[in-house]
Write a sequence for this structure.
């Protein structure tokens, strides 16, 4: 997953990876720890309004 906003922890990230150049983004790698259950979904008729 591409993470483009590094401002929230810029200095900590630079120190952690030991970078000397400008950091413009990160890529998160990994795999899911589990399979979450399906979230309830609304019917399309409940969220869409048609106008003639």
């Amino acid at each position: 997953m591409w993470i483009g906003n590094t401002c929230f922890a810029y200095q900590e990230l630079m120190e952690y990876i030991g970078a000397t150049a400008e950091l413009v983004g990160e890529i998160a790698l990994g795999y899911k720890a589990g399979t979450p259950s399906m979230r309830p979904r609304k019917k399309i008729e409940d969220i869409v309004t048609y106008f003639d």
Q: What stands out?
A: The chain has a mean pLDDT of 83. The CA atoms of residues 1 and 33 lie 16 Å apart. Residues 10-17 form the longest helix (8 residues). The longest strand covers residues 2-3.
